């Protein structure tokens, strides 16, 4: 009986972590609004780091740089909605590449919350 309950709890945990609210916003499953971005922590961070790899054969030394993707855990966004500025810091976000002025899609019920799920559309991913 204990084994069945722990297997059921593990399956429920996997199902809950597989679907995030930000992916539902991106797919249009949650009613959301498009708001303009004032500033983000995404703009402040560099997402690629070049790691040097040194290879020496005795006579020659070669340095090769490998780009490594920096995965950020939290995104801080200041945005305006109906002429009022809000700020949120979230770990449930998606970043999509967009040619134009950055904006976010956020659930209408999450506006003004300190930890809101969102999708950031910006010029670099």
Could you give a quick summary of the protein structure above?
This is Prophage protein. This protein has 125 residues and is α+β, with helices and mostly antiparallel strands. It contains three helices and eight strands, in the order H-H-E-H-E-E-E-E-E-E-E.
Give the total of domains: 1
Percentage of helical residues? 10-25%
Integer-rounded radius of gyration: 20 Å
Strand content: 35-45%
Biggest sheet details:
6 strands, mixed
Q: What's the pLDDT, averaged over the residues?
A: 80
Low-confidence stretches: none
Say how many strands there are. Answer: 8
Protein name: Prophage protein
Keywords: Signal
Organism: Lactococcus lactis subsp. lactis
Signal peptide: 1-23
Quick tags:
125 residues; 3 helices; 8 strands; two-stranded antiparallel sheet; 45% strand; six-stranded mixed sheet; flat; single chain; alpha+beta
Explain what the structure shows:
The protein has 125 residues and is an alpha+beta fold. It has one domain (19-122). It is built from three helices and eight strands. The strands form two sheets. It has a six-stranded mixed beta sheet with strand order 5-4-1-7-8-6. The protein has a two-stranded antiparallel sheet with strand order 2-3. It starts with a helix and ends with a strand. The model has no long low-confidence stretch (mean pLDDT 80). Residues 1-23 form the signal peptide. Keywords: Signal. This is Prophage protein. It comes from Lactococcus lactis subsp. lactis.
């Amino acid at each position: 009986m204990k084994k069945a309950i722990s297997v059921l709890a593990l399956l429920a945990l996997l199902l809950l972590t597989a679907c995030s609210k930000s992916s539902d916003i991106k797919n249009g499953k949650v009613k959301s609004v498009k708001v303009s971005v004032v500033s983000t922590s995404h703009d402040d961070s560099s997402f690629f780091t070049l790691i040097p790899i040194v290879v020496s054969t005795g006579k020659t030394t070669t340095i090769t740089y490998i780009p490594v993707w920096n995965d950020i855990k939290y995104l801080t966004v200041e945005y305006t909605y109906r002429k009022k500025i809000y700020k949120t810091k979230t770990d449930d976000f998606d970043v999509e590449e967009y040619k134009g002025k950055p904006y976010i899609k956020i659930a209408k019920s999450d506006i003004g919350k300190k930890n809101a799920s969102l999708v950031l559309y910006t010029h670099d991913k």
